[in-house]
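Re: [ENG-882] Designed sequences occasionally contain unexpected residues at chain ends

Forwarding the minimal case from QA. Structure tokens:
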């Protein structure tokens, strides 16, 4: 299990395409993370849909700062890469 703490990506990815997809590519391909986690509040259906489109899978609910959050995980083996063309151009295995 990979343990991490919330961080911000400090890489300059503007002009490369969708920042979220570019950040995933940096995390997997350049930093070598075996998995990446993401979470949102249960009422934030838009964020959950984006995570699902990117290939994240719902894992469980957990409490953080006194609020229930939904946790999603994407493992490197399920991420084929980012081709620079936006979410419609994602390549998933």
């Amino acid at each position: 299990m990979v343990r991490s703490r919330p961080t911000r990506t400090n890489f300059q990815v503007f002009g490369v395409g969708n920042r979220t997809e570019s950040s995933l590519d940096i995390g997997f391909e350049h930093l070598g993370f075996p998995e990446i986690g993401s979470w949102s509040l249960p009422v934030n259906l838009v964020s959950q849909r984006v995570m699902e489109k990117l290939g994240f899978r719902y894992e469980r609910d957990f409490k953080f700062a006194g609020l229930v959050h939904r946790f999603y995980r994407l493992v490197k083996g399920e991420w084929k890469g980012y081709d620079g063309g936006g979410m419609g151009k994602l390549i998933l295995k």
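QA comment: On inspection the terminal residues look reasonable. The first helix runs from residue 19 to 30. Proposing we downgrade this to a documentation issue.
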